[in-house]
Structure formats: structure tokens, C-alpha cells
Amino acid sequence: MSKNPANRGLGDHLKQGLKNVPKTYKALYNAKGMGPIQTAKHNVKLIVKGDVVENKEGGTKISPGTRAKVAMMGAASITPVGPLAMIADGIKKSVTEKKKAIEHNKPENVERRALEEGKVIKKNVPTRPVPPKPEPPKTQPTVNTFKKPLTPSPNVRPLNSNPMGTNRKGPTNK
Description:
mainly alpha, single chain, 2 strands, two-stranded antiparallel sheet, 174 residues
């Protein structure tokens, strides 16, 4: 079974309904170790008068809806329908718990509760630091600094010059 009520499925709701049967019988017939007769008297008094229940703020009366539910479960518990009614009640409680847990865990509700508690909420923060952008490589000059640029050498003749020099006479036909 899932421990978080928000993750309960059908099987988990049925398990919660089955767990409700012994709890309900204990509440109806053996509350606080009083015994079945005294517990039954207390429950009848609770249903009829709406006894005052002590809580942190002081005493309050039990609501008419709770009184009616106790009366219904008490009457059903002595019939064969009793366990089925208790299972249905447990399933209803489980479904209600799931809805409350889902509502409680919605992002906007979590943020609201955090703000009420004075916590700082960080949004869109990367989990890892973003590395700095690499700088583009600096461009080097394309001139080779080890060699001098190509220039005509003093020992090289121009291409259109006469290879025999300018003093040579042309060929003679004899």
C-alpha cells in the first residue's frame, strides 16, 4: 500500500475500507477500554444529547451529521449489512484523504504555504551552474613570419628576356 494518500489506487482504497471495520466496531463497542455495555450507553447518550467533546480549544458539541453517522453505524453493526457499510465508509474516507492530499500537493498550494512560512521560493534556477560561453579564437595573420615574401631574386632573369643576352646577333642563313 502506498504511504502517501495522494498515490492510492483502487486496491489501496479497499484495504483502507477493510481496516475501517475493526476500528468502527471498537469505537462502537469497546471505546477507551470501557467495555461494551458502557460504550453502548455512552454512544446512545452522544447520539441523543450531542455530548460535549473536549479538544484543544475547549469543549464543543458534536455536529448533527456525526451524531447521525454514529446512530446509523450502531444500527447497522448488529445486522449483516454492518461490515459492508463500514467498508464503504472506510473507502469514502480514503477517497476524501486522497483528494485532500492531491489538493495539498498542488504547486500553487505548496508555494502559498511556503510564502506563509516565510520561505524563499526559487523558480527557473538551473540545477548546475551554466558554463561561460567560450571566446572565439583570435585570428592570426595569414602571413608566414618565418619566410620573407616572394620577390624576384637578382640571379633570376625575367621570363620575356633573351637567354643569350642582348649582344647576340640573330641566326644567319647561309
